[in-house]
Amino acid sequence: MGPPGPPGRAEHPRLTTPLAGEPWWRSAVVYQIYPRSFADADGDGVGDLEGIRRHLDHLVWLGVDAVWVSPFFRSPMADFGYDVADYCDVDPLFGTLADFDRLLAEAHERGLKMLIDWVPNHTSNQHPWFAESKSSRSSPKRDWYVWRDRPNNWKAAFDETQSAWTWDEDTGQYYLHLFLPEQPDLNWANAEVVEAMHGVLRFWLDRGVDGFRIDVVHGLGKDQSFPDAPPETADRPWSSQNDHESTHAILRDLRRLVDGYSGDRVLVGEVYLLSTRQVAPYYGDGDELHLAFNFPPLYEPWEAPAWRHSVERVVEELDPRRAWPTWVLSNHDNPRHRTRYGSEARARSAAVLLLTLRGTPFLYAGEELGLEDAEISPERRVDPGGRDGCRAPIPWDASAGHGWAGEDTWLPWPPEADARSAAVGRQDEGSVLHLYRRLLVARRASVALRLGSWSPLPSPSGVFAYVREADGDRRAVVVNYTDDAVEVDLPGPWAVQVASDGSGEGERYEGVAGASQALLLSPGGS
Ligand code: GLC
Hints:
Layout: H1 24-27, E1 30-33, H2 35-38, H3 49-54, H4 56-62, E2 66-69, E3 73-74, E4 86-90, H5 97-109, E5 113-118, H6 128-135, E6 147-148, E7 165-168, E8 173-176, H7 191-207, E9 211-214, H8 246-259, E10 266-269, H9 276-279, E11 291-292, H10 304-318, E12 326-328, H11 337-341, H12 344-354, E13 360-364, H13 422-427, H14 432-445, H15 447-451, E14 453-457, E15 463-470, E16 473-480, E17 486-487, E18 494-499, E19 512-513, E20 518-523
Parallel strand pairs: 1-2, 1-13, 2-5, 5-9, 9-10, 10-11, 12-13
Antiparallel strand pairs: 3-4, 6-8, 7-8, 14-15, 15-16, 16-20, 17-19, 18-20
Helix pairs in contact: 7-8
Bound molecules: alpha-D-glucopyranose.
């Protein structure tokens, strides 16, 4: 770990009015909680809503603005909650609706917004709607799902040998599932499905949630002729290719519904199309998604040219639409960036990048602790998609149970669970945890970082540097992707406000970025 940063005096002023006319979600930092892995209050080794409630103060201390909770609805858990059997109830594993209401109320008391995960592309095969649909070809809900006499060549996710169609012996037809056979796709071309799913949104909006992360949103509208995937991409899952114009009308209706509520409720869509050009249209003309995930940067290697290109693509595609970007380095579907980038120094620099680019950053619980993925032995594998490593439980302290109520957790602990625990990180001002906190304090205090313009600065090849600016407020950022110190001359003077390794904070910037170091600079320091 680097030397300690400045004393932990940094305070978090609440963002009362972010900027006149700006919705809260533009300047917010969102923190993703995967509920199975966050905190367990009842001792069954699986996290729950009460566990989240007990740790809200961690989030306030850290300084995030909003929480997105991955699915906690009734589910047989074939995909750990992304297979929903009742959209309007809490699975007993996670608690009750009363637990949810209490969690939401206590989050709101602390000034935290709360987004929940809405999974509209498919239900569980145990959902009563599917049971009814499957019961006979003449069922009134037959058309709520996608039934065909002949499959096309679409592949399901998770296993490229698996067709996206499963034969139903009883009724003699195939049904479509872009994911597991236990996750049949809903038919959004059916008006009753649309109405039922709008009802789900209203149920949660009326309860007071601040918005939704929408699962696989690009999957909703499907070409009703169900054409084969082209030969070049036929072996890739259709869930990463479906991109049909009919989704946009569906989104405009969702947007109208959500905008009908007060409080700038937000729709954040998971558009899992690995091209920023294809993601951008999901913002519509400001009348579809408020925010869309854009995953190409997440899959970039830790290299300056790749990142420069990725960020420039976002500017080129999103700016003309006045669409607001999002940034994600880690989530519950991918190895953590600490693991991908191969060193703590790089992961620290990546945090500086993530929290200073123009747009809304999404943190994945545990990245603020510098967690790596857990090693999962073959006997402990549970996820059909091979994503267990990043879902390891969060260690809250250095005791044997790491603050979890029971000792047998559903997945093994990540490496160095003692040293990386929240309690230990909090006591060490040189920790990754304190770095995230200093960055979040700096963001809160700077309108340039929250909402300002972004322009690249000329810099040597292994370095990515840029400037943020708004209302006379300026910050510069220098990210050194190389493992050597590099001279980076900037028209200054500048002072080091936050350094990824904590060194030199408060001092004049001397024109050098250390090996794998990133710096947030503020004007001054002469
Ligand atoms: C999304 C989720 C992922 C899930 C899939 C199917 O990609 O992020 O976890 O398995 O959708 O719902």
